[in-house]
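Quick one: structure for this chain?
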Amino acid sequence: MLDLDAIDVEEIATALADQTDYEHRWLIDPRTGEVAFWTSDLGIDGENPVELDELDLIVIEPLPSYVWYQDMVDFSDGIGDRGAGERLRRSLEGRGAFRRFKNALHQGHPELISAWHTLRDARARVRAVQWLADEGLIDEDAAQGFQRDHPEPALP
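Got it. Here's what it folds into:
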């Protein structure tokens, strides 16, 4: 088992949210907790291509987009300004919801950007720690302790 304090939880959270493509992957060393970035053409050292199955590392598969989408829904539904919440909620309808939500937030409600980032990042960190526990890299008690010590922030 790895020591949770020695793991870069933010980096794991970034990897779990990275929905871009399969030409690159995030990996974790199960012995050290060190996170590596692999690309199909440059491997993990930036110079030597290597196949993923040749590495003794665990691939950090991104979480499905609906997980991150739900954060936007919960934020829109949870803020105190009902008008702003409704406008943000409408931005989530149909394809392109992530971009529209970001635009609606930045253009129409910049005062809510910090609260959104705080909620999004807090949830991402908890998901990262739970992923580590699910992979057997940290103790379940450590994951539960992290979640207990890092409650979700209150929304404005």
